[in-house]
Amino acid sequence: MRLTRKQAALWLLFAGPIAVFSVWAVVDNAPLYFKTLLNGLTLASLYFLVASGFTLVFGLMRNVNLAHGSLYLLGAYVGWIVGENTGSWLLAVAAGFLSAAVVGLLLQVTIFRFMEGQDLRQTLVTIGISIVLADLMLWGFGGEIYTFDPPKWIYGSTELPLVEKFPTYRLFVLLAAIVIGIGLWSFLAKTRVGMMIRAGVDDKKMLAASGVNVQLVFAVTFAIGAGLAGLAGVVGGTALSISPGEDTRYLLASLVVVIVGGMGSVVGASIGALLIGLAEQFGLAYAPTYSVVFTFVIMFVALAFRPRGIMGKAG
Amino acid sequence: MNSAATAAAPGSLARTAGLREAGAESRTVAAPGPAPLWSERIGIRPRHLVVLAAALLYPFIASPFFTYQIGAQSLALGLIALSLTFLGGYGGMVSLAQMTVAGFAGYGVAIFGTSSFAAISLGWPWWLACAVSVLLATVFAAAVGWLSVRTEGIYTIMITLAVGVAFFYLAQQNYTVFNGFQGFSKIGAPELFGIDWKEPVPFYFVALGCALAGYFLVKHLVRAPFGIALQGIRDNPRRMESLGYHVTAHRVAAYAVAGLLAAVGGVLMVWYNGRISPGTINLAQMIAILIVAVLGGMRHPIGAFVGAIVYVLLQNFAIDLFVRERFNLVIGGVFLAIVLFSPDGLLGLWAIVRSRLLQPELSNQKRRQL
Amino acid sequence: MIASKRRVWLRSIVGAAAAACLLGTAGAQETLKIGLLANLEGPFAVPGQDGYRGADMALKEKNGMAGGKKIEFVKVSSDATPDKAVAMTRKAVEQDKVQIMIGPLSGDEGIAVKNYAKTKPDITFINGSSGAQATTLTDPAPNFYRFNTEGAQWMVGLGEHALSKGYKKTFLISEDYGFPYSQVQGFMASYCAKGGKVVDKAWVPLGTKDYASVIAKIPKDIDALVVVLGGSDAVNFLTQYEQAGGNKPMIGGSITVDQTVLNYKGKRRESLLGTASAGPMADSIDTPEWKKFVADYKAQFKDGFPSPSLFAYLYYINTRATLEALDAVKGDLSNGQKAYRDALQKTSFKGPAGEVKIDANRNGVGTTYITEVTKAPDGSFYNKVVKTVPNISQTLGLPEAEFKKMGLGSRDVPDCRK
Question: The whole model's pTM is what?
């Protein structure tokens, strides 16, 4: 693959300092560097899980669902209740997925269906929904902290080369993200429904003209996107606990991931998540004061050079 | 009857969202009759004079608390919301970073002027600190605009949201310039001509003056070629581009104008509060500006101030009316109801009510356009 | 013609209604109104409710009367931002015409309200639970009284306790803002003086949830971790530390292993047991006053916590001081409240968690309890008192000149690495 001069220059501009930094960091404190690298990868997996649903919904329906974080939190709370009452963490994950999917389906069928083409109005509605949902959840579940109880075999630490003890659960999240990512990609690329969704992203009218029930496709997509948020809620909540305020946190993370990676692209979401997750963890390890701002700086730089995101498509 | 002076169709949320086609405004021509008064010729109507008189007399009738905490705060908040109404209603770009621009100007006043933290504050004279802050905030707004407008409209909300949150974190974490979590206090309006502008009545008039200036600026701009071009770009950027208009430049300029309005509002706000900290520009405050603008209605500049008054009243008296804990639920619910059922906000509702009483034979569609 | 007349009539009705809304009227006063400010929104919504409960308890003890007058609380709420705190205080003072104001809840709100207090010299302001050092140490207001001790005072004595357990080298992980700075200063003031070393400090931005990389930075050769995090951050850190295979003992700040953290919904982690901490109160103080306080709280508030929280306690002592001083002057608030303020300065009583009184700077001088997390017979976790350190003032046990030289806590103050 031949690179143009401009592309080569950009690669050098960004990869150069990173390479220099890496060499210095490995020499300085190798276990810290590799631990941070692995931490960044695993955090990126969590961000990918959350952002994949968001990008799917936007990619197809041009709906910037700012209630995505609220769906995350809702799935987490419902999953927690199910987990507490059944004692099974896996059931909790399933419950998280299903509850958020149902709510997402309801939202699409009762509200968003009637607002086709009014992107701005849809977004404002999602903002209103997120405010209302957040307060309802605060009312219902209180301000306490909720943690999950995963099975023993994914809790605790594992011995790994280079990094010594590493939390097993984070490796599990990494694995889950890879599985779900591949599953999502195959679903979109190989199945009929996936084909319809991709066709709809490119040209909704043609899809409708070729006899496909577009509303059904939309409903299914929104349900899957919301369900992914709920699933991520339980998975993320097990790693990082659940409390009010998590919804805005993960919404912002999804936004940044998707802006950097490109809207509507699952591959883009994974690239964005990688960049953001790594930046956050390396920032926290080596320059904690501004670690939070790093992720936004990356976003601004990405926007300056590629306004549609790294993998974003035109139109 | 609407005079021909209303040719510049005001933007509204409904139209921005594509609900109505371009050009479907009700336009009426002045009926032939007696020669118009000078006031009618430049568009001043009796209701304008009533509102102006009420605003001028308000501090002399209301208690100092109401003048300051309700009146002046509504005006400052309304000015910031006005910047969003201009940008969103007339420009079609809803930016969640207006509060951020206002906060930027506020921090400027704290850093360049005098405050409790002498180690950072430079101590410049108040007029210099204000002028420089407003200028820098306007440049900042233009930069945010440039970052946001090169893509489709819906990206704007996301990008400006991220910008706002980034600035919040920067202000919270940085102690050398922004003094981190504590922020700055003891910032106040100056004393001029023997009057202390921090007092409720003088401050109210300062706020009123700025609000009126902003209001008339917006009203003038939307009828000027710039404003008309902006509305054209809102409705159909491709066509405007092919007509030879530089779409991106117009949009960035709109951001700059909105930034100017928000910056002045920000200076008023930092004087009103007497302090600024990251809590002033956090996510909740950014969304509050959107709520205020949508609540009042983005179809006309007065909507921003109507929304601000309602919001400030709710904030202050909610605890007396209903359970304070569920304030967010109430305000979120109201916002949701407005976006779902009356996208033109309170102004839209008022138009419907008014027409129902005065012209019962009109259809709903026509009512919305009044 | 008819249409325009109706239009005018319609507009004047609406205009009159709007005017009536905006003008506002002052209410009549038969009882004595005291303003009460806590948080019902924002990050401290749940503790804020407990603050109101504490104040209500103090009032109920006096049967709703003080100084011969019936007391009515005018409750206002903020959301932990200083702007809102000042706005709500202003509402209570200028609109609802309270003459005494109790609040606010959080540290930065306290500083903002103190600045507002200076503009209202005729009103007396008493703290709620805010615990920032700067409120009374930097540019104090002569009409702002704080009967509780502040964040730095809450950690005095923990340093010696840590040394007594053999923790000579420690690593600090803390949130990066004002309250933890004070807490760390309180800990390090005596810890460093008596030979302890804090080899490095990891200041983590507020709102961080993923501590994995901070945990990776913890050096191997330290004796213990000093963790000053609160709420869900503390829960996350403790969980992640255990998952990462960490096993160093921990010393916690005042809100790191408190009620909210020990009572989180989920499986209790055994690794918490033994964590030392310090604060102005503890769940298990073994005095009749404290037991009565807990019993009263449980009886009055069926929807409250299992045991009164820090905020209930702090609001309780401040409110009780307010009311007792009113009794002492028989409700006399005349002459710029001078007699009342003199009475406040002299107020002292035996509170549920020790003696309550203020110093010449109108800041509380009180007791700090050193605790360790222990398992109760029924399996739940609580903080057991292991040591009581009385009479701690804002100079943190140091001579005043030395304390002044040190200055207020910040990221780099105090420092004792080597």
Answer: 0.87
